[in-house]
């Protein structure tokens, strides 16, 4: 798993708990956390946060 996928899972859990408890963290409620989690999943699906050609090329040179 990548960093964005793990962060999305954590944010989904926070959003679920806040939604069930009708709570807020710093004035931000559950739906905002769910939108943030969807954004993180979108970045993960786009390939952000995953090892790519640049990082592998850097390892071979050094």
Task: List SSEs in N-to-C order.
Answer: HHH
Oligomer state equals single chain
Question: Into which percentage range does the β-strand content fall?
Answer: under 5%
The total count of helices amounts to 3
Shape category: elongated
- Indicate the low-confidence ranges by residue numbers: none
End-to-end distance: 25 Å
Explain this structure.
With 62 residues, this protein is mostly helical. It has one domain. Helices cover 71% and strands 0% of the residues. It is built from three helices and no strands. The protein has helices spanning 3-21, 30-45, 53-61. Helix 1 runs antiparallel to helix 2. The longest helix has 19 residues, at 3-21. It is elongated.
What's a quick, concise take on this entry?
The protein has 62 residues and is mainly α. The chain is built from three helices and no strands. It has one domain.
Q: What labels would you give this structure?
A:
62 residues; 3 helices; mainly alpha
Q: Can you lay out the helices and strands and say which pair or pack?
A:
Layout: H1 3-21, H2 30-45, H3 53-61
Helix pairs in contact: 1-2
Transmembrane segments: 33-54
Keywords: Membrane, Transmembrane, Transmembrane helix
């Amino acid at each position: 798993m990548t960093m964005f996928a793990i962060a999305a899972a954590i944010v989904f859990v926070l959003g679920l708990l806040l939604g069930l408890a009708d709570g807020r963290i710093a004035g931000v409620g559950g739906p905002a956390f769910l939108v943030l989690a969807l954004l993180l999943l979108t970045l993960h699906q786009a390939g952000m946060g995953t090892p790519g050609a640049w990082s592998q090329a850097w390892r071979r040179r050094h």
